[in-house]
Design goal:
The structure holds two protein chains of two kinds. Chain A is an alpha/beta fold. Helix content of chain A is 38%, strand content 13%. Chain A is globular, with a radius of gyration of 23 Å. The chains are: A alpha/beta, B mainly alpha.
């Protein structure tokens, strides 16, 4: 066979894709009863400044600590007589007014780490700050419950730790067509089509073949399930808007995916924070409101919970470059229709009793939020996924 | 020695072997072959790039003078130093590609994932990297004592902040947990006491170690049941007295060089050898000389690290990236950027390299590098990036990896081989029978095409 014929033949063969028997077994396994609930996790990457997001506009310490950065009281979109939203966040305030938003203040963990990498690892793996775990908490959910790579999807081209399991990993894609095309490379097809799988072992070579087959069938499943969906909503034309648009496509097409992870970058505002953060929050809030509306119109919002976090908050005091440095505890947003305690879940940040680095102390361990979502929303065993039992909170029923 | 054995040895102790080398060694005895391997790695050839532009920052006095006069210039140089670390990354990969002392380079890679460290000060991390290279086949005791004094390590694990008045336990903890004993083989009290012994260990801007006497705790410490006025070196001596330390390192060596699955009696055997004098060279000679190293069950069972995969290809077809940044892109997409480990625990290796996305990228790598294939996948942004930069990492729709390829080595070593012989040289693992049937039925147009096809089957991911 000549090379050109080989390529031609193998692309023809693609329409007759042979599905090895154990892949079929995997697919039926994934249909098991995990319910309809979805979780969307959004990381505001770089460390969003929570104090200028939800502003304690009656607090003198806030204004004294940030002469160049604080937001004057009359620009705040007030929510309570203590706290209000950054002026860019009126779309988020709309969600708050509808009772779709819970704000949990002072979320963090003991002995906070101020490195982006390390603290992101800690949030992704649900570890203690002195513990190194090489699987993510969503990855372990896939290991124990989802069982297929597409049980958890990252809206990007490479996979983050959060979606890496002990034995099964999630899959990353921001464009299902691109992923599908890569997997459809004629030569890979040829290798896989030839595969009869009855002799694939548990050794590394068998593992590679299985991963390849699962990757291909996941890519195909994601692409084919979602390709005909047509949007009725216009999303802002920026990369974050696109990530949410694709997530909505996936959810509204009834993809069997349980957990989505999106990372929005740009929040590391050491220098001239004011305008930068205003633009970022504007981008974030506008896309979020449309996303929620899109899901609502398709009747999928009632089954979707959205969690946003940053790897850390920022220092109370501004720095010399009109920005803020890495801090500790921060606020977390939970967005959904079935909130038990919409509005503010707990107390405002305490700006008097700061930690040794003059950062906000945590009062709620982030893993309690994970445990609550796993247990009450996804209805799975939180203890085996988080390797430990954490007290549950009351933000969902 | 059998061809298959030599190939196995060189896939573990190096990055593969050329047909001509294989032929040269084929008639020789095992002892001679191993001797040859070690003698080529006798001395360390340091990795050096031009860092003269940072001379002022390395000099204590010049630094002080500059601090007064020109803060902005210092800031700029520091930024430049961060970028220069990338150049060191490229230079390291080039060194891996061209090295004749393959064993030493392979060991250096191994140690870089034990004594895991990261630093943006390029002359410190260069010094650190060369310390790994220098001690890679030396004495483990000297090695640990050197690492504990390195400025990059001191910064990475906060030993710089470890002072008598406020001990910082980070270095002491990781020294035991990740570098020598493993979790559960020491107490929290051992950590507290040993942290005191490392207080005041510091360095000069040029990288020289020095003891800040007023910050050092000269008091009595109790560590592993012993009591004395211990300093850091005493602590390391006591750690090495624990047989667990030899076992811990041997387990890592075994998984990396022999088989990801441990054979307990073989591990016990090499632990005895290593514990005798902590001589790394002796340990490696013992492993490569043993009969069990050449058991068939050890052939082609290790999943190559992204760097092993990349360097393996580059040794056969050297190439130059028109945009060096794309060399970084390739590393990022596969999940291993040299000099940029994820955390102090390092890369987890073996199956952890593989997920749906990395596997497809790895299997496409040969056609990307050698066949001008197109890839439309973007790398992740950095934490420090602005919103625009975060999403714009070479966000080209149809990305080619523009490379200038040099087929000379391939032409002289592989071009005239029979296809079946080419396969034996490129693939170490035994090929899956269905895939083998496919390969058999391909009519090979040119060895170049066949090379790329061979490098695109799952078996090529193994060594």
């Amino acid at each position: 066979m000549q090379r050109r014929d080989f390529i031609k033949q193998s692309s023809l063969a693609s329409s007759l894709m042979f599905v090895p028997s154990f892949v079929k077994a995997c697919e039926s396994l994934a249909q098991n009863n995990l319910g309809y609930k979805k979780l969307v996790i959004i990381q505001l990457s770089g460390g969003n400044d929570g104090l200028n997001t939800i502003v304690p506009y009656k607090n003198d310490i806030y204004y004294k600590s940030r002469p160049a950065l604080s937001i004057p009281e009359n620009n705040i979109i007030k929510a309570t007589d203590e706290l209000g939203f950054h002026p860019s966040l009126s779309p988020l305030k709309n969600l708050y007014d509808k009772g779709y938003l819970s704000i949990i203040n002072n979320v963090g963990y003991p002995n906070p780490v101020r490195s982006h990498f390390r603290s992101t690892d800690i949030w992704h793996t649900a570890s203690n700050s002195n513990e190194y775990i090489s699987s993510g908490w969503v990855g372990r959910y896939i290991d124990q419950y989802g069982k297929m790579p597409y049980s958890g999807i990252e809206l990007d081209d490479s996979l983050s730790l959060i979606l890496k399991g002990e034995t099964i990993n999630g899959i990353a894609t921001k464009t299902p067509r691109v992923l599908h095309n890569i997997m459809k490379t004629p030569y890979f097809e040829k290798v896989l089509n030839q595969q009869t799988d009855d002799h694939l072992s548990e050794h590394n070579l068998g593992y590679l073949y299985k991963t390849m087959i699962e990757a291909k069938s996941s890519a195909k499943y994601i692409y084919e399930t979602t390709k005909t969906y047509s949007h009725t909503k216009e999303y802002p034309n920026n990369p974050f808007g696109k990530q949410l648009k694709t997530t909505a496509t996936f959810i509204n097409s009834n993809l069997q995916t349980k957990i989505y992870y999106v990372s929005m970058g740009g929040f590391d505002t050491h220098v001239n924070q004011k305008n930068k953060q205003a633009r970022l929050l504007d981008t974030f809030a506008k896309s979020m409101e449309i996303f929620v509306d899109d899901l609502e119109r398709n009747n999928t919002f009632k089954d979707t919970l959205i969690l946003t976090f940053s790897e850390f908050g920022r220092r109370v005091e501004q720095n010399a470059a009109r920005g803020t440095d890495h801090g500790a505890a921060n606020n977390v947003f939970v967005i959904g229709k079935n909130l038990k305690k919409p509005g503010f879940y707990n107390e405002s940040p305490d700006l008097v009793n700061l930690d040794g680095n003059k950062d906000v102390k945590y009062s709620i361990d982030f893993r309690s939020i994970y445990a609550t979502i796993l247990n009450k929303w996804l209805e799975v065993g939180d203890k085996t996924i988080l390797n430990k039992s954490f007290s549950k909170l009351d933000f969902i029923s | 020695m059998k061809t298959k054995y030599i190939q196995h040895l060189y896939s573990r102790a190096g990055f593969g072997i050329f047909p001509s080398e294989l032929k040269r060694l084929g008639s020789k005895s095992k002892e001679t072959i191993i001797q040859d391997l070690f003698s080529r790695s006798e001395r360390a050839n340091p990795l050096v790039i031009d860092l003269s532009e940072f001379n002022q920052l390395r000099d204590d006095n010049a630094m002080k003078a500059m601090k007064e006069a020109n803060k902005e210039a210092i800031r700029k140089l520091r930024q430049k130093s961060r970028q220069k670390v990338m150049e060191l990354n490229y230079a390291w990969i080039e060194k891996l590609r061209t090295a004749d002392d393959v064993l030493r380079e392979k060991m250096t890679l191994f140690w870089a994932n034990i004594f895991v460290c990261k630093d943006n000060t390029v002359w410190h991390i260069q010094q650190y990297n060369n310390a790994l290279r220098e001690h890679a086949l030396g004495n483990f005791e000297d090695f640990v004592k050197t690492i504990a004094r390195e400025p990059s390590m001191s910064k990475y694990l906060n030993n710089k902040q470890n002072v008598k008045q406020h001990p910082n336990e980070n270095f002491a903890r990781e020294l035991m947990e990740l570098f020598t004993l493993g979790e559960g083989n020491y107490s929290e009290e051992d950590i507290k006491e040993s942290a005191r012994a490392f207080t005041g260990w510091s360095f000069k801007p040029d990288g020289q170690f020095f003891l800040r006497k007023r910050k050092h705790d000269y008091g009595t410490k109790t560590f592993f049941g012993k009591t004395g006025e211990f300093d850091g070196d005493d602590i390391i001596d006591i750690i090495l007295e624990q047989k667990q330390c030899a076992r811990f390192i041997c387990e890592k060596v075994y998984r990396y060089f022999v088989n990801p699955d441990i054979n307990e009696s073989q591990l016990e055997e090499i632990t005895e050898v290593f514990y005798r004098g902590y001589d790394i060279r002796e340990l490696m000679v013992h492993i490569f000389s043993s009969e069990w190293f050449y058991d068939e069950e050890n052939f082609g069972v290790k999943i190559k690290s992204p760097i092993e995969l990349l360097v393996g290809i580059l040794r056969i077809v050297p190439l130059k990236f028109e945009k060096p940044r794309q060399l970084l892109y390739v590393q990022k997409m596969m999940g291993q950027v040299l000099l940029n480990p994820p955390n102090v625990a390092g890369w987890k290796q073996n199956r952890s390299w593989i997920d749906s996305n990395t596997l497809m990228f790895r299997m496409k790598l040969a056609s990307l590098l050698l066949n001008n294939a197109v890839i439309n996948l973007d790398e992740k942004g950095e934490f420090e990036d602005t919103f625009e930069a975060y999403y714009k990492k070479e966000n080209a729709r149809k990305r080619h990896l523009r490379t200038t390829k040099n087929w000379d080595v391939f032409n002289s070593e592989y071009m005239t081989l029979q296809p079946s012989r080419l396969k034996e040289h490129i693939i170490i693992a035994s090929v899956d029978k269905d895939t083998d049937a496919l390969l058999e039925n391909l009519s090979v147009n040119s060895n170049k095409d066949y090379l790329i096809q061979l490098m695109s089957i799952p078996e090529y991911q193994l060594c």
